[in-house]
Amino acid sequence: IPVLGSGDVVDAAGALARLRGGWADGVMIGRGAMANPWIFGQVMAAARGMRIGLADNWLRHVQDVHLRHRQRLNHLPQPDLENVLCEMNVIEQVGNVALSNVMQDAWGRGQKIAVHGWVYGLKDGLVKDLQVTMSHSEEVVEVFRNGFKRYPRATL
Predict the structure, then answer these.
(1) Which of 82, 94, 102, 117 makes the best surface tag, with the fewest CB within 10 Å?
(2) Cα 16–147–151 angle (5° rounding)?
Protein backbone atom coordinates (compact mmCIF):
# COMPACT_ATOMS: atom_id res chain seq x y z
CA ILE A 1 0.00 0.00 0.00
CA PRO A 2 1.58 3.30 -1.07
CA VAL A 3 2.02 5.92 1.65
CA LEU A 4 1.53 9.60 0.78
CA GLY A 5 3.29 12.27 2.78
CA SER A 6 0.94 15.15 3.47
CA GLY A 7 0.13 17.84 5.99
CA ASP A 8 1.86 21.19 6.13
CA VAL A 9 3.28 20.69 2.62
CA VAL A 10 2.99 24.15 1.12
CA ASP A 11 6.02 24.32 -1.16
CA ALA A 12 8.72 22.30 -2.87
CA ALA A 13 10.99 22.38 0.19
CA GLY A 14 8.29 20.84 2.35
CA ALA A 15 7.64 18.11 -0.19
CA LEU A 16 11.34 17.30 -0.44
CA ALA A 17 11.62 17.08 3.34
CA ARG A 18 8.87 14.43 3.32
CA LEU A 19 10.68 12.42 0.65
CA ARG A 20 14.07 12.70 2.34
CA GLY A 21 12.58 11.07 5.42
CA GLY A 22 12.22 7.88 3.38
CA TRP A 23 8.86 6.90 4.86
CA ALA A 24 6.68 8.20 2.02
CA ASP A 25 6.15 6.71 -1.42
CA GLY A 26 4.77 10.01 -2.67
CA VAL A 27 3.90 13.50 -1.53
CA MET A 28 0.62 15.37 -1.66
CA ILE A 29 1.41 19.00 -2.33
CA GLY A 30 -1.05 21.34 -0.67
CA ARG A 31 -1.19 25.09 -0.41
CA GLY A 32 -1.70 25.16 3.31
CA ALA A 33 -5.22 26.55 3.08
CA MET A 34 -6.21 25.14 6.46
CA ALA A 35 -3.20 26.61 8.25
CA ASN A 36 -3.24 29.76 6.17
CA PRO A 37 -6.80 30.64 5.12
CA TRP A 38 -5.48 33.96 3.81
CA ILE A 39 -3.50 32.18 1.11
CA PHE A 40 -6.18 32.79 -1.52
CA GLY A 41 -6.21 36.52 -0.83
CA GLN A 42 -2.43 36.53 -0.93
CA VAL A 43 -2.45 34.88 -4.35
CA MET A 44 -5.03 37.41 -5.57
CA ALA A 45 -2.83 40.23 -4.27
CA ALA A 46 0.11 38.80 -6.21
CA ALA A 47 -2.02 38.58 -9.36
CA ARG A 48 -2.96 42.24 -8.96
CA GLY A 49 0.58 43.38 -8.19
CA MET A 50 -0.41 44.61 -4.71
CA ARG A 51 1.96 44.70 -1.73
CA ILE A 52 0.70 43.14 1.47
CA GLY A 53 3.69 43.13 3.82
CA LEU A 54 5.84 40.21 4.93
CA ALA A 55 3.85 37.78 2.79
CA ASP A 56 5.30 39.57 -0.26
CA ASN A 57 8.43 37.43 0.19
CA TRP A 58 6.34 34.25 0.03
CA LEU A 59 4.47 35.56 -3.01
CA ARG A 60 7.64 36.25 -5.00
CA HIS A 61 7.36 32.86 -6.73
CA VAL A 62 3.71 33.48 -7.68
CA GLN A 63 4.69 36.86 -9.12
CA ASP A 64 7.48 35.18 -11.09
CA VAL A 65 4.96 32.67 -12.48
CA HIS A 66 2.72 35.58 -13.51
CA LEU A 67 5.60 37.32 -15.25
CA ARG A 68 6.82 34.15 -16.99
CA HIS A 69 3.34 33.29 -18.32
CA ARG A 70 1.99 36.82 -18.86
CA GLN A 71 1.03 36.07 -22.49
CA ARG A 72 -1.28 33.33 -21.22
CA LEU A 73 -2.64 35.44 -18.35
CA ASN A 74 -2.85 39.15 -19.01
CA HIS A 75 -5.66 38.93 -21.61
CA LEU A 76 -7.96 37.18 -19.11
CA PRO A 77 -10.60 38.92 -16.98
CA GLN A 78 -9.27 39.42 -13.43
CA PRO A 79 -11.23 36.55 -11.77
CA ASP A 80 -10.11 34.11 -14.48
CA LEU A 81 -6.54 35.40 -14.29
CA GLU A 82 -6.48 34.71 -10.54
CA ASN A 83 -7.78 31.15 -10.97
CA VAL A 84 -5.41 30.35 -13.82
CA LEU A 85 -2.47 31.87 -11.93
CA CYS A 86 -3.18 29.55 -8.99
CA GLU A 87 -3.27 26.58 -11.36
CA MET A 88 -0.06 27.62 -13.10
CA ASN A 89 1.66 28.05 -9.75
CA VAL A 90 0.76 24.47 -8.82
CA ILE A 91 2.06 23.19 -12.18
CA GLU A 92 5.33 25.07 -11.62
CA GLN A 93 5.66 23.58 -8.11
CA VAL A 94 5.03 20.05 -9.42
CA GLY A 95 7.76 20.62 -12.00
CA ASN A 96 10.15 21.96 -9.35
CA VAL A 97 9.65 18.90 -7.14
CA ALA A 98 9.90 16.48 -10.07
CA LEU A 99 13.17 18.03 -11.27
CA SER A 100 14.74 18.01 -7.81
CA ASN A 101 17.71 15.74 -7.24
CA VAL A 102 15.74 13.91 -4.54
CA MET A 103 12.99 12.85 -6.96
CA GLN A 104 15.40 12.20 -9.81
CA ASP A 105 17.54 9.98 -7.57
CA ALA A 106 14.47 8.14 -6.24
CA TRP A 107 13.24 7.46 -9.77
CA GLY A 108 16.77 6.43 -10.76
CA ARG A 109 16.66 3.81 -7.98
CA GLY A 110 13.36 2.53 -9.38
CA GLN A 111 11.18 3.84 -6.55
CA LYS A 112 7.50 4.06 -7.43
CA ILE A 113 6.87 7.72 -6.53
CA ALA A 114 4.55 10.16 -8.26
CA VAL A 115 4.11 13.91 -7.97
CA HIS A 116 0.57 15.20 -8.51
CA GLY A 117 -0.85 18.70 -9.03
CA TRP A 118 -4.20 19.54 -7.46
CA VAL A 119 -5.59 22.99 -6.74
CA TYR A 120 -8.53 24.50 -4.87
CA GLY A 121 -10.77 26.60 -7.10
CA LEU A 122 -10.99 30.22 -5.94
CA LYS A 123 -14.57 30.49 -7.20
CA ASP A 124 -16.02 27.28 -5.82
CA GLY A 125 -13.46 25.80 -3.40
CA LEU A 126 -13.53 22.48 -5.27
CA VAL A 127 -10.37 20.46 -5.73
CA LYS A 128 -9.26 20.17 -9.35
CA ASP A 129 -6.77 17.63 -10.67
CA LEU A 130 -4.54 19.53 -13.11
CA GLN A 131 -3.50 16.32 -14.90
CA VAL A 132 0.22 16.93 -14.40
CA THR A 133 1.10 13.72 -12.57
CA MET A 134 4.76 12.80 -13.04
CA SER A 135 5.92 9.32 -12.09
CA HIS A 136 9.32 8.95 -13.78
CA SER A 137 12.10 11.16 -15.14
CA GLU A 138 11.38 10.61 -18.81
CA GLU A 139 7.95 12.24 -18.68
CA VAL A 140 8.70 15.37 -16.63
CA VAL A 141 9.45 17.82 -19.45
CA GLU A 142 6.54 16.70 -21.65
CA VAL A 143 3.97 16.67 -18.84
CA PHE A 144 5.21 20.07 -17.64
CA ARG A 145 5.01 21.57 -21.15
CA ASN A 146 1.58 20.07 -21.84
CA GLY A 147 0.32 21.35 -18.49
CA PHE A 148 0.60 24.92 -19.77
CA LYS A 149 -0.70 24.29 -23.29
CA ARG A 150 -4.28 24.23 -21.98
CA TYR A 151 -3.96 27.99 -21.37
CA PRO A 152 -3.87 29.77 -24.73
CA ARG A 153 -1.71 32.78 -25.33
CA ALA A 154 -3.32 36.07 -26.25
CA THR A 155 -3.66 36.64 -29.98
CA LEU A 156 -2.19 39.87 -31.29
Answers:
(1) 102
(2) 135
CA angle centred on 117, ends 27 and 80, rounded to 5°: 150
Is the pTM higher than 0.85?
Answer: no
User: Which tens digit of pLDDT belongs to each residue from 34-90?
Assistant: 455 555 565 566 656 777 666 666 677 888 888 999 999 999 998 888 889 889 989
Q: Where are the beta strands (DSSP E) in 14-66?
A: 26-27
* Residue of 91, 49, 80 lying closest to 154 (CA atoms): 80
Rounded CA-CA distance 26/121 in Å is 23
Q: Determine how many CB atoms are found less than 10 A away from the CB of residue 51.
A: 9
The whole-angstrom separation of Cα 103 and Cα 44 is 30
